[in-house]
């Protein structure tokens, strides 16, 4: 096991800056998720850690050791590739045994170790004996994982390991993967574009965009205090509501029609430097509470007309227009919300996010 | 529309529906090809089988004498035939093994990107594109004992004496193997390259991550995954070498004596120098059976490999 440190890592492919000046530290035994849309440089960063790409500039450290010039075999990392990259001509057993065989581990020891991981990953005998290319997607995934952890690597790298699985199975594997990582305590870097995966698994999430780190933090930090419009937009489902606004003394003027929203004293103090500045307000659906019609007076409250209601399990999503933008709010399923009816909505003052319109950076905290 | 026009239309419809049915239409396409094939392959083949049972010569007209299996018996009991077979076996196996390993080795080196790779590839392929007669003649001059460049170079570099490449019984087989290897190794290289490049890069990346050495990677990934194509290339070379004639004809002329005569060379002599047409036909059938036998073994192996990798 090892900690990982990236120092000013850069990787350019011709003119394209795939990774642009990434610095960060991953602690020993931590599970860090690199999250971002495709093309954000998260996989390239991972491949630089693995040694499969040679960085254009910058360094990679494992513990205190500079491994930048090391080839993948010398780094002793394990990796699960997006499409598993199992050896198609070998059986599942031979695939798992491959890294041990390559290191000339005695046969009896190989058998024992493979036995251990197959048990850990619940790979039955009939699966283990099968050719790799005859396995189902989920089993391929398990075999790839088994191959990765069979030899106690310093670092475990996972490149979108669940993206090739179908929805139902993905959730199952996700929780198994999380439990497994905690059990074997290996420093893990996990790359995904699926924010839900990131939220469920990560000790810390690194949000990337255009080759740069946008924000690093625990899932909760990122969810509640996005430092940037992009993070707020990318994390959470259903997504954050956004609307242009102007700050004026003790209220925000929302949207084109300047709908007034009174804000709390605390928020007013925080925003004092932004008098008259163009901002973007972001608020998550669950921080918009549903109130009955007629309760629209007061801080953070506003009168709206409900357009439609969706019932999703134990809660409801209600849609309404505000300042020319469609908003989503979340309410308990017990709430009796009439489509087309009027109601009041309260903005949770502690959960309002405000971003500068030009820089898109958060103006709070 | 008058009546006669209507009748014409109907007639055309009938023609389509009843005379030129789909089935007949298909047959119409196949028949010319089949006729040409029968004429060019079927007829000569039948003639060869037929002639194999008779004693006759194209040069001496007259009634062929029926021999039954006499020709076959004569050929297979003739010790000279066995000498030809033994030489052929030596020549084929030596050449095939050398070309296989050499070709694969060159392909392995040419796999990775480097400057001028395209040019090197083209140059490597040149010998294969030459006419075997020319190759045979060129090597004949190069192997010349007195003034050939091979002896000159060997003399300069290794200080060897004048080696009698073509005039000495035990050396001439090597001369033949060298010339054939020079010409046909590129073929093995070409097919090995194709086989190697069909292996996806991510498998090598996975092997790299799994800390496999270059040899381990080659042994456990490259070789098994390219095996079907390599076996196929081997089969091609084997059959081709078994038929080797033109290169040897110009290089050694079958000599010294008759020591470098391959079976096909022998066949040529019986058929077109002595004009023992009946005997040569039987000989040809024997060779055909051997080649079919060899191919069958290889193809069986090949299908098994393909099955395994499915």
CATH topology description of the largest domain in chain B: MetI-like fold
Shape of chain B: extended
- Helix segment count of chain B? 13
In one word, what is the shape of chain A?
elongated
Q: Point out poorly predicted stretches of chain B.
A: none
What is the topology, as strand order, of the major beta sheet of chain B? Answer: 1-2
Of all chain pairs, the largest interface belongs to: A-B, 27 and 19 residues
Number of strands of chain B: 2
Task: Give the helix level of chain A as a range of percent.
Answer: 25-40%
Biggest β-sheet strands, sense, barrel of chain A: 6 strands, mixed
CATH top level of the largest domain in chain B is Mainly Alpha
CATH superfamily of the largest domain in chain B: MetI-like
The class by helix and strand makeup of chain A works out as alpha+beta
> In percent, how much strand structure appears in the residues of chain B?
under 5%
- What does the main sheet of chain B amount to? 2 strands, antiparallel
Count of discrete domains of chain B? 2
CATH topology of the largest domain in chain A: Rossmann fold
What Rg of chain B is obtained from the alpha carbons, in whole angstroms? 27 Å
Rounded mean pLDDT of chain A is 90
Poorly predicted segments of chain A = none
């Amino acid at each position: 096991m090892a900690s990982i440190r990236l120092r000013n890592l850069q990787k350019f492919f011709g003119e394209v800056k795939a990774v642009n000046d990434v610095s960060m530290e991953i602690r020993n035994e931590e599970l860090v998720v690199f999250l971002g849309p495709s093309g954000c440089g998260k996989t390239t960063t991972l491949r630089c850690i693995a040694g499969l790409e040679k960085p254009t500039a910058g360094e990679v450290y494992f513990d205190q050791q500079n491994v930048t010039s090391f080839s993948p075999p010398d780094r002793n990392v394990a990796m699960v590739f997006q499409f598993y990259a199992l050896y198609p001509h070998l059986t599942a057993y031979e695939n798992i045994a491959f890294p041990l065989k390559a290191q000339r581990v005695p046969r009896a020891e190989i058998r024992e170790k493979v036995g251990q991981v197959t048990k850990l990953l619940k790979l039955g005998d009939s699966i283990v004996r099968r050719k790799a290319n005859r396995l189902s997607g989920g089993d391929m995934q398990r075999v790839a994982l088994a191959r990765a952890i069979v030899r106690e690597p310093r670092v475990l790298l996972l490149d979108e390991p669940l993206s090739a699985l179908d929805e139902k199975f993905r959730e199952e594997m996700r929780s198994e993967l999380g439990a497994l990582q905690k059990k074997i305590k290996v420093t893990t870097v996990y790359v995904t574009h699926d924010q839900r995966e990131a939220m469920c698994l990560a000790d810390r999430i690194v949000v990337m965009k255009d080759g740069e780190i946008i924000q690093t933090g625990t899932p909760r930090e990122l969810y509640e205090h996005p430092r940037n419009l992009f993070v707020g937009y990318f994390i959470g489902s259903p997504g954050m509501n956004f609307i242009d606004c102007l700050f004026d003394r003790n209220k925000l003027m929302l949207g084109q029609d300047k709908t007034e929203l009174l804000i709390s004293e605390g928020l007013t103090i925080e925003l004092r430097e932004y008098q008259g500045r163009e901002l973007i307000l972001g608020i998550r659906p669950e921080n918009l509470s549903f109130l009955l019609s007629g309760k629209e007076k007061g801080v953070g409250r506003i009168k709206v007309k409900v357009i439609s209601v969706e019932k999703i399990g134990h809660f409801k999503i209600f849609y309404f227009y505000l300042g020319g933008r469609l908003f989503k709010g979340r309410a308990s399923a017990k709430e009796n919300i009439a489509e087309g009816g009027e109601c009041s909505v309260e903005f949770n003052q502690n959960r309002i996010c405000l971003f500068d319109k030009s820089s898109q950076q958060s103006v709070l905290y | 529309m008058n009546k006669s026009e209507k009748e014409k239309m109907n007639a055309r419809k009938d023609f389509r529906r009843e005379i030129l049915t789909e089935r007949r239409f298909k047959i119409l396409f196949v028949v010319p090809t089949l006729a040409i094939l029968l004429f060019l392959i079927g007829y000569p083949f039948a003639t060869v089988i037929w002639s194999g049972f008779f004693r006759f010569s194209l040069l001496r007209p007259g009634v062929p004498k029926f021999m039954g299996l006499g020709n076959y018996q004569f050929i297979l009991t003739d010790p000279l035939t066995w000498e030809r077979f033994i030489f052929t076996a030596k020549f084929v196996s030596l050449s095939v093994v050398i070309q296989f390993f050499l070709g694969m080795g060159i392909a392995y080196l040419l796999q990775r990107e480097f400057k001028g790779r395209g040019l090197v590839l083209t140059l490597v392929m040149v010998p294969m594109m030459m006419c075997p007669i020319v190759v045979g003649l060129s090597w004949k001059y190069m192997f010349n004992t007195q003034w050939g460049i091979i002896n000159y170079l060997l003399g300069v570099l290794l200080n060897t004496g004048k080696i009698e490449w073509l005039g000495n019984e035990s050396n001439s087989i090597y001369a033949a193997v060298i010339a054939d290897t020079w010409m046909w190794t590129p073929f093995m290289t070409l097919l090995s390259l194709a086989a190697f490049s069909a292996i996806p890069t991510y498998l090598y990346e996975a092997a790299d991550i799994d800390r496999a050495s270059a040899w381990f990677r080659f042994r456990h990934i490259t070789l098994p995954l390219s095996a079907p194509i390599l076996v196929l290339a081997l089969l091609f070379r084997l059959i081709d070498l078994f038929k080797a004639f033109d290169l040897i004809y110009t290089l050694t002329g079958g000599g010294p004596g008759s020591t470098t005569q391959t079976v096909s060379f022998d066949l040529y002599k019986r058929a077109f120098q002595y004009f023992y047409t009946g005997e040569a036909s039987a000989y040809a059938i024997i060779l055909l059976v051997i080649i079919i036998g060899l191919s069958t073994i290889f193809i069986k192996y090949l299908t098994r490999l393909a099955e395994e990798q499915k």
